[in-house]
């Protein structure tokens, strides 16, 4: 009885997914492209190269990122009284362009994402989105990659401006926990960036990291494991950082050690280990 209740207490109840860079390479193939098109359309000579965008990603949130760009990388742009409205307007247009890029079907999900979501649904593990981008952008990505009905797969979408402070602040994860009536120990976050892991960790939630070209060199101290992607049966992940060899004989870690792709059994093993 005691063992049973301990098992129940320790079970993984929910997986909380970041969006940008985690579900898909939306930063490189979507957001950066859309920012540049919005700038061009507005007659601005602002151009965000891939190298500059990597630096700009230090700040989450598109509006916040444009303010950061002006403050640190385009100081010669003349000051204006309406800068907040100006940036908000640019950002609205950028969102429209971003959504139209997704509607063109240009941005696929990263390896293993669809499979892991389907496995979670089969195993009755609750799903949520925890992101700094907007609900409109999340909906467009889901609709164009998994179909319209996939939005119902997620019990809750915690997105964008609903909290005062975006990642790396813990606010958005705390908000999701509160709305879903979960504790941090019930969940694992899937993230791709240092700002993401800091936000989750600030709320007490452990993260599995899948890196991308922008985030490969970030500091992921405290991650449960750092992988190049979630993996597929015919496309194994590579472990970039983790302690898989520790306790190699224990049931938990032998499952983790032998795995080639992330599924719910793998996450459960990490969660209990
Ligand atoms: C994502 C972001 C977002 C996108 C742009 O961070 O920082 O701001 O880059 O989206 P995370 P918006 O993956 O950690 O949530 O322009 O809609 O803000
Ligand atoms: Mg991200």
Structure overview:
Helix 2 packs across helix 5 (83-103), helix 5 (83-103) runs parallel beside helix 7 (135-146) and helix 10 (251-258) crosses helix 11 (264-272). The radius of gyration is 19 Å and the shape is globular. The relative contact order is 0.14. The protein contains 11 helices and 7 strands. It has a 7-stranded mixed sheet, sandwiched between helices. It has 2 domains: 2-24 and 109-272, 3-Layer(aba) Sandwich (Rossmann fold); 28-103, Putative phosphatase, domain 2 (DNA polymerase, domain 1). Residues 1-9 have low confidence and may be disordered. The two termini are 21 Å apart. With 273 residues, it is α/β, with parallel strands linked by helices. It binds xylulose-1,5-bisphosphate and magnesium ion. Magnesium ion binds next to loops.
Topology:
Blueprint: H1 2-10, E1 14-17, H2 26-41, H3 50-56, H4 62-72, H5 83-103, H6 113-122, E2 126-131, H7 135-146, E3 156-159, H8 171-180, E4 187-191, H9 194-202, E5 206-210, E6 225-227, E7 239-241, H10 251-258, H11 264-272
Parallel strand pairs: 1-2, 1-4, 2-3, 4-5, 5-6
Antiparallel strand pairs: 6-7
Helix pairs in contact: 2-5, 5-7, 10-11
């Amino acid at each position: 009885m005691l063992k049973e209740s301990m098992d129940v207490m320790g079970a993984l109840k929910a997986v909380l997914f970041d969006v940008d860079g985690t579900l898909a390479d939306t930063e490189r193939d979507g957001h950066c492209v859309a920012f540049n098109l919005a700038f061009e359309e507005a007659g601005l000579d602002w151009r965000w190269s891939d190298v500059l965008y990597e630096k700009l990603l230090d700040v989450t949130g598109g509006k916040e990122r444009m303010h950061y760009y002006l403050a640190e990388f385009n100081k010669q742009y003349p000051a204006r009284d309406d800068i907040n409205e100006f940036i908000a307007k640019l950002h609205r247009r950028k969102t429209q362009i971003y959504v139209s890029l997704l509607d063109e079907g240009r941005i696929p999900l990263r390896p293993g994402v669809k499979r892991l979501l389907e496995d979670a649904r089969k195993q009755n593990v609750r799903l949520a989105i925890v992101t700094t981008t907007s609900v409109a952008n999340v909906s467009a990505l889901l609709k164009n990659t998994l179909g319209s009905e996939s939005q119902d797969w997620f019990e809750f979408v915690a997105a964008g401006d609903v909290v005062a402070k975006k990642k790396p602040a813990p606010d958005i994860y705390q908000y999701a926990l509160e709305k879903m009536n979960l504790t941090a120990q019930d969940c694992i976050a899937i993230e791709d960036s240092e700002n993401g892991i800091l936000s989750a960790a600030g709320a007490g939630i452990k993260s599995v990291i899948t890196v991308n070209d922008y985030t490969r060199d970030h500091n992921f101290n405290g991650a449960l494991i750092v992988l190049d992607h979630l993996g597929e049966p015919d496309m194994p992940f590579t472990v970039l950082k983790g302690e898989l060899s520790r306790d190699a004989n224990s049931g938990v870690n032998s499952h983790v050690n032998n795995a080639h792709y992330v599924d719910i059994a793998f996450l459960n093993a990490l969660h209990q280990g």
